[in-house]
Design a protein that fits this description.
By secondary structure, the protein is mainly α. It is 63% helix and 1% strand. A two-stranded antiparallel sheet has the order 1-2.
Length: 560
């Protein structure tokens, strides 16, 4: 591993890296796939068999089309190939359809579209190497952290989704903004929103950053008599033309995406599919956020109250649906229900300091990326019906900072280890256990090892390998928390199924995983937020990670 990480020159290793990733993903083709496989198969059938006017009305299958129009067109393009491979694949049916050719095609389509992610990472690495003189070894580490991200591997190539190419568009947008190509970066983000609307969570970071840094640009020879500062900006610096440019890009992209449905009078129908607020507060498997703690508290109060006689025993007979397994909505037994508006307010309050920080203390792409990560954090922790897979929206962009900032690397190591293990219940079949455990171990060991080489220096290599119970970069108490994940998974996978609790409390392993992982996610959020608000970056810094307190290459403080 050390020899690979010392490789010089991006061209020497890039093609090999991409080829190896394709081979690894191909080996996962025979693995288990979730209901999402049938979801996308049904979308192929809908877009191929029906006219555009029926796409968002079709409901033969329960897996109705609920992604924005650009993703629907993406499915339509795939369906033109799918019908040639297996015509039954694009037949609308209430029943699930699976064939060898269907599996090969859909798995293959994910692998091929993942090349967008590889291209985007290459563009970002090229930018970093050119503008910040980042060593080729560090670029290789960043590429491996993203392309071989454990979460993307199991969610896309086992569980089955198309997150890889979506994150590719996302990173391409960040790369263009980093290069100063504001309009191109904005275009790619607008395209991304029309592929998957979950990225609306980070739209406030884009809006505030672009408005502050692109629409308010001080002139080279600013005159004192033209100073009229409101909300931290000089209104004479405002550029209506730049605002019009941004608005034009947004209107063009959204018009091309939603325009046909607006013309047919179907906008409300499309939006009802995109934002189904009739779903419960939590997904059936709780994402590791504050609502997991809220749900666990509700159950604890109900059990203790029932046994102490404070609550009638009949109350506990109303079993919350969240204990029933992987499907369904959650209901609370004791604590009051949480309406969607409460989650919206809490989410906005959680991201407000980050947005204000970008506005009043602009720091170029560095501050923007930090704000973007905090917006993803806030929406994950406080949002409505959050899926556990949404943690990747925090981990992937955080990878970009981890390679250049040791404090961000600390947060990344805590969050990626915790967040990735929280995805384990997605692969609940026993035959996938060795795969997810091995992939998780390889990615986690590589993350700690490689980031230690970046931030602690190669002299620390022997000490890292020699002392297995000390983890680099993170603090000792964080290391012991991470070791606790091993015992948690051992209990959930090897002990709980053989106890009486497996029948009485089948949902206990999922609840323990969500609650324990929530602690790590919340701690990572607090660490990153405090560091962001305390850091005083160089104004208008064009390079991600350039701050007044440089840490790359600095040895970590000795721990007692």
């Amino acid at each position: 591993m050390a020899a690979i990480l010392r490789a010089d020159g991006m061209a020497e290793w890039w093609n090999s890296l991409v080829v190896f990733s394709v081979i690894l993903k191909s080996l996962l083709i025979p693995a288990y796939h979730s209901s999402d496989f049938e979801v996308h198969r049904n979308w192929l059938a809908i877009t191929n068999s029906l006219p555009l006017s029926r796409w968002y009305y079709e409901s033969t299958s329960q897996w109705t089309l609920d992604y924005p129009p650009l993703f629907a067109w993406f499915e339509y393009l795939l369906s033109q190939v799918a019908v040639l491979i297996d015509p039954k694949m694009v037949v609308i049916s209430k029943l699930e359809y699976v064939s060898i050719s269907t599996v090969l095609f859909q798995r293959g389509s994910v692998i091929v579209t993942d090349l967008v992610l590889a291209y985007a990472v290459k563009e970002y690495c090229r930018y970093l190497a050119k503008r910040s003189s980042l060593p080729a070894r560090n670029c290789l580490i960043l590429a491996m952290l993203v392309i071989f991200n454990f979460g993307l591997l199991i969610v896309d190539h086992i569980h089955f989704q198309y997150n890889g190419f979506l994150f590719g568009i996302f990173l391409l947008s960040i790369a263009k903004l980093s290069e100063g190509m504001i309009l191109e970066g904005s275009f790619w983000f607008a395209v991304l929103l029309n592929f998957k609307h979950i990225f609306l969570y980070i739209a406030p970071a884009y809006f505030v950053f672009l408005l502050r840094s692109y629409c308010f640009q001080p002139s080279a020879a600013e005159k004192k008599e033209k100073q009229l500062r409101i909300c931290g900006v000089n209104i004479w610096d405002f550029s209506p033309l730049n605002l019009v440019k941004l608005g034009f890009i947004v209107v063009i992209v959204f018009g091309a995406s939603f325009g046909p449905f607006i013309a047919m009078g179907q906008l409300s129908q499309v939006l009802s599919r995109l934002f189904p607020f009739k779903r419960g507060l939590c997904h059936a498997y709780w994402a590791p956020n504050v609502w997991a703690l809220y749900n666990a508290l509700d159950k604890a109060v109900a059990i203790l109250g029932s046994k102490s006689g404070f609550f009638p025993k009949e109350l506990f007979n109303k079993q919350a649906s969240m204990t029933g397994g992987l499907v369904g909505q959650s209901e609370h037994l004791i604590l009051p229900a949480v309406p969607p508006i409460v989650t919206v307010i809490l989410t906005l309050l959680s991201v407000l300091p980050a947005l204000l920080h970008v506005w009043f203390r602009p720091s170029g792409v560095t501050g923007f990326l930090r704000c973007l990560i905090l917006c993803a954090f806030g929406s994950f922790l406080f949002g409505w019906h959050v899926h556990e897979k949404a943690i990747l929206m925090v981990i992937i962009p955080l990878s970009l900072m981890a390679i250049v900032d040791q404090r961000a690397a600390r947060v990344f190591l805590v969050l990626s280890t915790t967040g990735h293990l929280s995805l384990f219940p997605l692969l609940f079949q026993s035959q996938e256990t060795p795969i997810k455990v091995c992939l998780m171990l390889m990615f986690t060991i590589f993350s700690f090892y490689s980031l230690c080489l970046v931030h602690c220096g190669e002299s620390s290599e022997k000490s890292v390998v020699g002392d297995l119970f000390k983890l680099p970069i993170v603090e000792w108490y964080e290391a012991w928390y991470l070791y606790g994940l091993v015992f948690l998974e051992f209990y959930c996978g090897a002990i709980h199924p053989f106890t009486a609790l497996a029948v009485k409390l089948p949902f206990l392993p999922l609840m323990l995983t969500s609650v324990y992982c929530t602690v790590g996610v919340v701690w990572a959020w607090i660490l990153f937020y405090v560091d962001t608000l305390k850091t005083s970056p160089i104004a208008n810094s064009p390079v991600v990670g350039t701050t007044r307190r440089k840490t790359a290459g600095k040895k970590p403080a000795k721990r007692k």
